[in-house]
Amino acid sequence: MADKLKAMTKRSACSLLSKGNKGVVLGVRATPVRWSTTSAPSSSCLVPAVQVPASYSYSPSYSPLRTTSSCGASSKRSALMMAKMKATGLSQQSFASCGTAWSSRAFVGTAHRAEAARWKGEGTGGSGLRRSLAGCGSARVVGCGSSPSTEVKTAAAGSSQETDGTAAGVLGGSEIRKRFIDFYVSRGHKHLPSSSLVPDDPTVLLTIAGMLQFKPIFLGQEKKKYDCCTTTQKCVRTNDIENVGVTARHHTFFEMLGNFSFGDYFKEGAIRHAWELCTKVFPLNPERIWISVYKDDDESYEIWEKSIGIPKERIVRLGEKDNFWSSGPTGPCGPCTELYYDFSPELGAEGADLEDDDRFIEFYNLVFMQYNRTPDKELEPLKVKCVDTGMGLERMAQILQGKPNNYETDLIYPLMEKACASAGVEYHKLDERMKQACKVIGDHTRAVVYLISDGVTPSNIGRGYIVRRLLRRVVLKGRLLGAEKGKLFTPEIAEIAVGMSNDCDPEVAKNSQRILSEIAREEERFVKTLDRGEAILSDLLEKASTDKSKSLKGADAFMLYDTYGFPLEITQELAAEKGIDVDLEGFERAMEDARTLSRSAHEAVDMTLNDYEGTLAKTLPSTEFCGYTDLDAESEVLSVIKDKEQVSSSQEGEKIKLVLDRTPFYAESGGQVGDRGVLVSDNCKVNVVDVQKVAGGLLYLHEGIVEEGSLAVGDRVSAQVDKKFRDGCKIHHTSTHLLQTALKSVLGDDVCQAGSIVKPDTLRFDFNYPEAMTGAQIKEVERLVNSWVAGNNETVVDEMPIAEAKAKGATAMFGEKYGDVVRVVSVMSEQGESVSMELCGGTHVERTQEIRGLKVVSESGIASGIRRIEAVAGDQVIDYLGAADDIVKSLSSQLKIKREEIVPRISTLMNDLKASQGMVSKLKEELAVAKTAALAGKVVSINGFKAVFESIDDMDSKVLSAAAQQLQSSLGEDAAVVLVTKVSDKKVSLVAAFGADLLERKMHAGKFVSSVAEVCGGKGGGRPNLAQAGGTDPSKIEEAVRYAETQFKELSQ
């Protein structure tokens, strides 16, 4: 009988585990079941007295346990189980001896001291009960163990939560993150910070994986600084954006916890670490963990089975698609093993499918890079084997917090809860569609906040487009949820994300004002776009209503979705109200085209090996840079590269790249361009035109042309930097530091660098600011910089730990990577105060008077919220002012006035010109009216309407419109006028003017002229009574006129 009950509990049992002073309490999860508690028993076994049909009796020696409500999620299955129990007539003894069934869904049975001790030893404690309850409805458990007054609160998905967003005793996201990092640090790993979401890698648009910052090490292009390390990496992926909120685990923004080994431990060490972390530190029930391995990876299989003790039935061999990692046709690759959590172990191992997302979740992936795939598809063993792992923080939170999906964990749920509060709704009362909207809001807001913090601003291209698209989806989902129109919705959600960001990225909080301001501005812009989109949709639906198909084109529906943010379902609803279908197949085709482009840009990290850089990194010592103090040095040629191949020598006229053992040449970094100069010896002269860093900055690659003689590996050369070039770079680089300080002083501390270029003759500085600077602000910035220049302040260079530098307030340069020890460049006043302090590896003047002066040449916007200043310093200021003075002298001479009179005189001339142009335009209109008056004799009668369809020579579009309107008015309200003119060799202008009688027939001038313009290769539109269009093919003008007449005959019937 006990076996029968065990079989039933496999289908409908749920474990509720809590460590008490006396043992382990287990209870039944079922809607009709209630538990009560009085006092803790003193027996060796705790058995909950469960209220089932009256025919059952239980031993009075066992203390019952009560919850204030039932779990409910599996009520149907549990009720069925109860009926089966009654039908079988189970006795008290058989019920009490049914054994233990571990499950997250339901449970009936006993827990003996030995079992309790085993779980206690693995650190499960009371969190297991609370996790189980948290996943199956709200409950209040009272009286566990010998403390009946102790109350443990558990939070159901969507219910009110404690300050950390989780139930008492349940691991919050911050604690999961901390335990992971602490575990690996305690095992000798270096904890490194998350890299920026804007990667230093041209093969990807955003940081999409935890291993991305280590790619140069895996490729052998950079020497490792540590044998092993651990990170929590912020990532953004947008290739499956439509699945966000729909599935339980798809995200755009997520955190990837990772541990990495660069030739230290390999499979045995990685697997043991992973197992200990998962079963001891978090901990997970070992019997719920399944393993997948690559089909041919016998080594990993044996480690899991023999060393760890995983039963064979829970180790699954999978093919290359699932368990062999590679990214790119060549380069490092290898098998991987993955850990899965089983939500329904009661279903058994037979027929289990790890692809069953309802039952399993993959939460930890261990990649073993042990091969290099050659262009011939051969797998060569790597000399240095590496480990790359990834654990999804959100997935682990779902498991440990007992939630049905990642969104309802404490990592995302607070944002969803705020969205609901703003919309005046309660999450747990929403239908599935509205819950999906909440999930999108929570997910996308996180992505937007971190992207903007890392310097990405909304725009229509690249990364900026991703921010814009995500933010618009948040606004739309907020409207769907019921957010109040006319009130900003996104900033208050983003504020929650900022408040939760510190453990992931402390910089987010520092950038909070900039983030929230940018989000508010973008929402305001989008609301205006939405209004325009609604008008466009209205026009499209009206046009579709006149078509025989009564269908809105799929491409138009996608345009509304992609450009104006209209979800397809909203377009369908509005179309259905007018009896119009939407071409779903066409929409899907357009969507798939967009997806293809998105995937090609964002889905994979290109790990294709650049052979010569990898070889250089492995075989050559680091380049010694002596350029801070010397502009020439005696050096040895260590390597010569021609056409991406290492060669032993080069000849006159050849373009080459070479590596020296030591160099005074500055390699491009921090915005400063690489030095120019020459390499000379008795046998050759090489003109150096650029210098770049490779191998993670350890090697300097000099690019140049052999102008004389020949150069070979092993030659000694004199490396000589162009002093004038270097001095110009130094002047403009220090000026850039002073400029940033001045901008912060004038515009506010939220100003931060978004890019820069330092050249010997100019500087360019990009920074975040929402509007154009005023003339007064630019003057004040110039005044501040030049006052510091005149003060002859000293430039001081120090090296210190990065934590100390940041504590002193040093500013980091945009897009730069820093080590543990950094170079700090400060401009110090005579009073010992810091005018400017930045982390910088560039070259600088010793004293600010070397700069001589700075002049802002231009200030402009380059993207939404991003401004650009171009400026000159040093000798270039004199050149610039001299050129400006020449212009002033020339104007003064030509106008025969004093220089102070130039501006008012030019204003007067511009006003006179404007008046003259107005007169000319009026005369043209009068001439056009006179020409069109002659067309009155060409009126034709069509279906009871008067109509004119003609072409007119040499008339601009504005005049053409006035002429058509005048002629239509003179002919009456039953008249239509369509005129076409050639504006230039590649430009055609068309206009249509319709009287009121035609409008009553539902004829629309905008739609009509747009269709006619297509004949000339153009398009257009406008109001129902008057509209214009343009074309590109004047040779089709007469054809367009004939087409207009034919169309009018059809539409006016």
Automatic annotation (TrEMBL):
Binding site for Zn(2+): 733, 737, 840, 844
GO cellular component: cytosol; mitochondrion
Record GO biological process: mitochondrial alanyl-tRNA aminoacylation
A Pfam family recorded for this sequence: tRNA-synt_2c
GO terms, molecular function: alanine-tRNA ligase activity; aminoacyl-tRNA deacylase activity; ATP binding; tRNA binding; zinc ion binding
Superkingdom of origin organism: Eukaryota
Keywords assigned: Aminoacyl-tRNA synthetase, ATP-binding, Cytoplasm, Ligase, Metal-binding, Mitochondrion, Nucleotide-binding, Protein biosynthesis, RNA-binding, Transit peptide, tRNA-binding, Zinc
E.C. code: 6.1.1.7
Transmembrane helix as UniProt keyword: no
Reaction it catalyzes: tRNA(Ala) + L-alanine + ATP = L-alanyl-tRNA(Ala) + AMP + diphosphate
Required cofactor(s): Zn(2+)
Record note on cofactor: Binds 1 zinc ion per subunit.
Subcellular localization(s) per the UniProt record: Mitochondrion; Cytoplasm
Domain (Alanyl-transfer RNA synthetases family profile) ranges: 171-883
Oligomer status and interactors: Monomer.
NCBIfam families: alaS (TIGR00344)
Described function: Catalyzes the attachment of alanine to tRNA(Ala) in a two-step reaction: alanine is first activated by ATP to form Ala-AMP and then transferred to the acceptor end of tRNA(Ala). Also edits incorrectly charged tRNA(Ala) via its editing domain.
Protein's name according to its UniProt entry: Alanine--tRNA ligase
